[in-house]
Each structure stands twice: as structure tokens, then as C-alpha cells.
Amino acid sequence: MAEENLELSLLCTESNVDDEGMIVDETPIEISIPQMGFSQSESEEIIMEMVEKEKQHLPSDDYIKRLRSGDLDLNVGRRDALNWIWKACEVHQFGPLCFCLAMNYLDRFLSVHDLPSGKGWILQLLAVACLSLAAKIEETEVPMLIDLQVGDPQFVFEAKSVQRMELLVLNKLKWRLRAITPCSYIRYFLRKMSKCDQEPSNTLISRSLQVIASTTKGIDFLEFRPSEVAAAVALSVSGELQRVHFDNSSFSPLFSLLQKRQKQKCQALNFVVPFIAGESEEDRGNDRE
């Protein structure tokens, strides 16, 4: 009953909003990649525990099927929300983990909650709420809610409307905001692929995070778990910038677990990621021209 009242309150607050003339932004998007706040050494036990728990932070199993089935409202809505979140992260100089968290919240919410049809403003409100929650978790400086809504959005929401949507998101996600994303693993995998278990350079980390962020543009990578995406990205980026070294003894516990899960899918992922990485590099080159 409380949740129904919350949704009704959201609808009443913005009932005068007209969503005719919705414009879909097709322009390229970029995100700044600041230094990530990883710990210096993640133990094997912690990483294994993360792998075991990561499924708790994923969208429901039928979400990607709904996206692939041609649900136009869901696909267009997700793309518009992604575009806005990406641009807002760039303007506010939020880190890539903030972006990944916001998209994680958005996808998880959409996978378990059907938004009313014909109300385009609700998805924009959801995007603002998800980014606001992610920024509160990950960033040291968070702008006021009215200032968070950058660019030229068709709808601008009052703080109380965003806060109501934040509460609805929190309830649907069961307050699990410390989500495990590919960013959570990337330093570990990069280090394991270096000679003598060396700490990865900022260049390697930055490049990897750019590729991880790029994987969220499409829906196909939702099929893979965060650890699988991170491993494939680390392998691809390490191969670009340095010679890859494998220590079978240190990798064996984690890789044995990964091999038990979707071995063929992981092989396909390792095939696709270099193309995503290439597109990311090409985008940066086009921006410099």
C-alpha cells in the first residue's frame, strides 16, 4: 500500500507534464575518466566472494529478453536515459563507477518494475534519481538536485519529485546500492595479467574504464556477469598496450569458477570486446579532429 501511494504521488506531482515532441538524442557521448579509488591489493578471498554475490546486483533474468523482443518504449527509454546519464557524468566530472552504478540501478529497476505507458517524463525522472543515488554513493561532491539536471532536458523536476523516485528505486532494489560492476574487478584482472603481478598503470586503468563504460551503450553485454566483462576487457586492453602474462596458479581459483559458467559465452565476449575497444578509440580520434 505504501508503495502504491508513492507511485500515485509521483503521478500527481507531474500530472501536468506533456511528453509530446520527445526528441531522441543520437549525438556521440563521452565520459571523463578520473582516477579510480581502488585498494592496492584485493585478496583472492574477497574477489571470489564478489563473484559469488554479483548475481544479487543484476537485472532480472527476463530483462534482456524483453529488450531484445522489440519493446520499443523500453528500448528507446533506456537509450534516452543512458544518453542523459552519460552527458551528466561528463558535465559534473563524475567517475566511471558512478556512471556504471547509475546504469546498474536503472536496469535493475526497469527489470522488476513496469512504468506507466505514455508517460515519457517518468523515465527521465528515473534517470535523474538513479544518477543522484549513484553520485551520493560514489562522489565526494554532489550538486543540488536542480543543478544535477544538466543539458537541455525536456523535463526539469523539483527536488521533492526526485526524492520520491529515489525512495521508490531504493525499495525496488531492496536498498542494495553497493552494486558489484565490472569496475569492481578491473584493477585485479589487470594486475593478474601483468608481469610479476605488477600494479597496473593509470593508462591501463583509464583505457579499461573507457571500454567498460562503452559496453553499456548496447544491451548485449547485459547477458554477461560483471566479472566476465571485466576479465574480457582487461585481456583486450592489456593486449593493446603491453604483453599479457598469465600466472596459472594465481588465476586458477577464479578462472575455474568462470569456466563453469557460460564458457562459450565468455569466448564470445572475448571476441566482441576488442571491437568495442576499437570503437572507443575511434570515437576519441574523431573528437580530436
List the helices and strands and how they pair.
Elements: H1 2-13, H2 44-53, H3 63-68, H4 72-92, H5 96-112, H6 120-138, H7 145-148, H8 159-172, H9 186-192, H10 202-215, H11 226-241, H12 248-260, H13 263-288
Percentage beta strand: under 5%
Q: How many discrete structural domains? A: 2
| Low confidence ranges | 11-41, 281-289
Number of helices: 13
- Rg over CA atoms, rounded to whole Å, is 19 Å
Which sequence of SSEs, written as H and E, runs from N to C? HHHHHHHHHHHHH
Question: Overview of this structure, please?
Answer:
The model is unreliable at 11-41 and 281-289 (pLDDT under 50). This protein is an all-alpha fold. 38% of the residues are buried. The chain is 62% helix and 0% strand. Helix 1 runs antiparallel to helix 8 (159-172), helix 5 (96-112) crosses helix 6 (120-138) and helix 10 (202-215) crosses helix 11 (226-241).
